[in-house]
Amino acid sequence: MAGKVDSGGQASGVQKESTRVEYGKTLAELGGQNPDIVVLDADLSGSTQTSRFAQLYPERFFNVGIAEQDLMGTAAGLAVGGKIPFASTFAIFAAGRAWEQIRQTIAYGHLNVKIVASHGGLTVGEDGGSHQALEDLALMRVLPNMVVLVPADGPETRAMVRWAAAYDGPVYIRTSRLPFPVLFPPDHQFHLGQGTVLREGTDVTLAGIGLMVHFCLEAAARLQSEGLSARVLNLSCLKPLDWELVLESARRTGAMVSVEEHLVTGGLGSAISEVLTDMYPVPLERLGVKDIFGQSGKPEELLRHYGLTPADIVAAAHRALRRKQAR
Amino acid sequence: MEPITDPGRLRELARQVRRDIVEMIYRAGSGHVGGSLSAADLLVTLFFGRLRHGNGHEPRDYFVLSKGHAAPALYAVLARLGHFPPEQLLTLRRFGSPLQGHPDSGWLAGVEVPTGSLGQGLSVANGLALAARLRGTGQRVYVLLGDGEVQEGQIWEAAMTAAHYRLGHLTAMLDRNRLQIDGRTREVMRLEPLADKWRAFGWQVQEVDGHDPAAILTGLRELEKDPERPGILLAHTVKGKGVSIFEDQVKFHGVAPTTEEYEQAMQELSAP
Hints:
Chain A has about 325 residues and is of the alpha/beta class. Chain A folds into 2 domains: about 140 residues, Rossmann fold (3-Layer(aba) Sandwich), CATH 3.40.50.920; about 160 residues, Rossmann fold (3-Layer(aba) Sandwich), CATH 3.40.50. In chain A, about 40% of the residues lie in helices and about 20% in strands. In chain A, α11 links the parallel β13 and β14. In chain A, α4 packs parallel to α6. Chain A starts with 15 loop residues before the first strand and ends with a helix. In chain A, about 60% of the residues are buried. The relative contact order of chain B is 0.17. At the A-B interface, α4 and α6 of A face α5 and α6 of B.
């Protein structure tokens, strides 16, 4: 499905929405539609935006305090008891601190728990490396039964949260602190296991998740001005990955770049390289944080420092194209 | 099923369950005999004498085996309740068997949630209790904890949650057999004063002889009277109970008996 957006651009007046705020709003909406939806948080309900649900449905909201392991176990019990629990905290505490609770009970038990974790990636900013989850996608992706989603904008967040409420099984959704430019129309639908082509191109494929999807579109516009044609993919469904779209893009363009606000190992770049290695090897440049922790700073400073700007994507596309031509 | 409250009948059921446990673990060549035998009277008394199975008009109560390594005891009880044919007990731990080394809801109906990694079952029980309250079903939730297990921090997170949310329809049983893998709990990591710890966390505590069905039933009934406070049955037990050579022996945490030990055990557990 090709989107309408050509380049999100950094023009002033570009519409932005926060994925965590859209999560909170959608959850509050769903709460009115489905009395089985319950929400849990671990003392971060303002940040994760579950407070919107809590205000409307206090009897179905459970704050367990600063206790993420208990958060996941309690959510698991609610799921076994027939409820549809959404459990939220920061991504590093959900995927990191409570990983083994998620593994033992939620993933192993294939329980109907939705983990929606905010503050993923570098753009957490000033709180620094302790709070910047750069490992969460890897940690969740290795778990059997787990669906792993990273929305690219507000409409996709809303679609994913609605989808997750209707899906029977464990789901991890990463939201972010910063607002993102809106890419999709308001009525955007999410389909499990499907990536989207946001821009057609023939020379190189730029594949992103989260905020990086928007950056890929910017990079594609710059490449166009150089006479290069880049295909842009939103692979927001990290697991199960749309391997057919990855394969088709590799065949069509012969070179790829993956971009993620995550360690360069274990996340999107690894997932794509697994598909390419198994089926159709082409040059792949993986952009992400390289085996190092984050640090304090403004989000834009951090993205520049760790090489995750549209300019970095353009440079990676050039490297991929050189490797393609050298074959 | 009508509850069985006669202590003599419960003791006899526990004797049969203990035979099953030893037989299963001996045949499997591995398994946790000590902690299964220490929990046998607690599980038999709960499942036959107190827990409601949802037949007729009564609600179905929930049970979570937080100390998942006592799976053989749970399996033996579930088989006697008719969840699966007793012959299947002998497939414990075998490839393809629903009787996995630790309980797995994906393999065996009658198990609510997979356990095995310690310290997690009380949180799950809390979630079940919250769901039961929201649904207004009147279901109670029971959970069996090991004593070594409460060294896990998550237990105390969950203990706070249960008291905070006034989960009076939640009852924990703590199999206080005083041994863990590396030795006596007092040597590995001191737990006492254990009853005071639970009381300080807002729980009711009943201390009982965990091998006395009448005392277990009385303790459970007492804990169920208060609709506001969760309760814990602090059950004093002997690891390996029922077989003299296993009793209070650190060695028999997770080792299968030899043929000689097995024969002696079955003799000691034979009908009186």
